[in-house]
Amino acid sequence: MIKAWFKSGTPWIWLNAGAISIALVAVFGLLALIVIRGMSHFWPAEAIQFEMLNASTVIAEVVETETVVAGSVPGIDISHGEVIRYLVKTGNRDLLGSDFRWIYDRDIKASKAPPELMVLERVEWGNFYGFLQAVYEGENKVAEGEAAWPELQSRLQRTLDLRDKITDIERDDIGSINYDLERLRLKERRLQIDGEDSEPVLQKINAQRKELDVEYKALQQTLSELYQQINRDSIRATVMDGQEINIAMHKIVKAWQPNQMSLLDKVGFYFQSLKSFVSEDPREANTEGGIFPAIFGTVMMVLLMSVIVTPFGVIAAVYLREYAKQGILIRIIRVAVNNLAGVPSIVYGVFGLGFFVYFLGGNIDALFFPEASPAPVFGTPGLLWSSLTLAILTLPVVIVATEEGLARIPRSLREGSLALGATKAETLWRVVLPMASPAIMTGLILAVARAAGEVAPLMLVGVVKLAPSLPVDGNFPFMHLDRKFMHLGFHIYDVGFQSPNVEAARPLVYATAFLLVIVIVALNLSAISLRNRLREKYRALDN
After folding, report:
1. How many other β-carbons are positioned within 10 Å of the β-carbon of residue 386?
2. CB contact at 8 A, 427 and 414
3. Each residue of 444-492: pLDDT tens digit?
4. pLDDT under 50: residue ranges of the chain
5. Crossing angle for the helix pair 328-340 and 383-407, to the nearest 10 degrees
6. Distance CA 236, CA 247 (A)
7. Is the link from the previous residue into 477 a cis peptide, with omega within 30 of 0?
8. How far is 439 from 71, CA to CA, in rounded Å?
9. How many whole angstroms separate alpha carbon 310 and alpha carbon 441?
């Protein structure tokens, strides 16, 4: 009976189903852990004031609670048995040296959550925890006591508006002028190299440079006025040791009193924090602020890689399947293509660095950009070389998937097209490739899924910790493929393993990992939707 049962194959079906179930539970469990650990970071936690037995005060929010054996904790006798300790975020790193610490329940005399307790997110030095005393305009006190908080909110909004104006001028207007000045410098240098630097041409360049200098000075004057306005306001606050300090308003990003917030207020604050995380630039060694440049760089690199790998993969598959004479050489090529899919990604990174960056990019600079020497243009890691490296890495996947799709097209369709007078090329273009397009999209989906999560090769050919500008802006030619860029995968590595503030970086690792999963899923769903539409369109012909 058991032997017949095994021969029927039923045990192997159940074994396969069990393995798939375990894999699904593991995947969804990991995703749940990432979501909980990452997304909970943006919820406004309650701020607690702890009164310690040694007469000191600790103002913080509780990050983590755990029970430990007393003997394993230095300074606590084993006779105390188990003790509860809290990892708390005290902020105020500029005053305390670190913004996380452990406190033990046996050392706590009392705790409370004062409604007037204030939390500030600052441009640098992390969060601030304390009590607001007064708001100042220059040297003049404009509000204190209960009137200070609404005054802080209104003046902070004014400061944020001014900061946005300053950022727009510095990044867009002045950045555009600096870009144009650099282009004029390179143009003048190129004329000197070619021996065409005649006096009229140089005068025209100098005239353009003077116009840009006038615009630059006007913008500098505007910036000076804006900086005077933004430096006007400040606040005075008390920290947990009773010390009073002054904080310039322009150093504050956000201010809230979590102990006074209703549930609706907390929900609104949560989604506003999520929006800021997705749309802003990183700060404080990537442990604060947002990750928009990393999201933008990841999506743009994957799209550029898809545009490069798809035609090359399809052309290679069409040649191998439709044109090449089948024999031992083609079989060797197919084996080589399949083996390339298993080559470690770092090997592709080394190849991209040596061939694309140093050889190809260096020669492009020598031929087309001699005026920029010794500074490289394309002879340095950048977006283009990263996309090409990943295109080569994912090329075997597209070739294999396309070949399988071409093999499934009935021979009768090809012969019918040829019998009606179409050439072989027309048959391929109008009949075979459209019907094989779902298989091509399947290869592209697999390529996108792999490329979006790769990190090792990108570290060699273009990804950086912090990119000063996006690869796309308003300056001609608008898309700058030579620029370095940020990537979500590398951002996770950098924040998780290179951050000087491990505890502050930990929730951001989870949040960024979750966003990377969302980006990959979104890209794959877009490709899957297109593939399904193509499959429905050509299903009738396939039948």
Report:
1. 31
2. yes
3. 888 888 888 888 899 999 899 888 788 988 888 888 899 999 999 999 9
4. none
5. 130
6. 6
7. yes
8. 62
9. 9
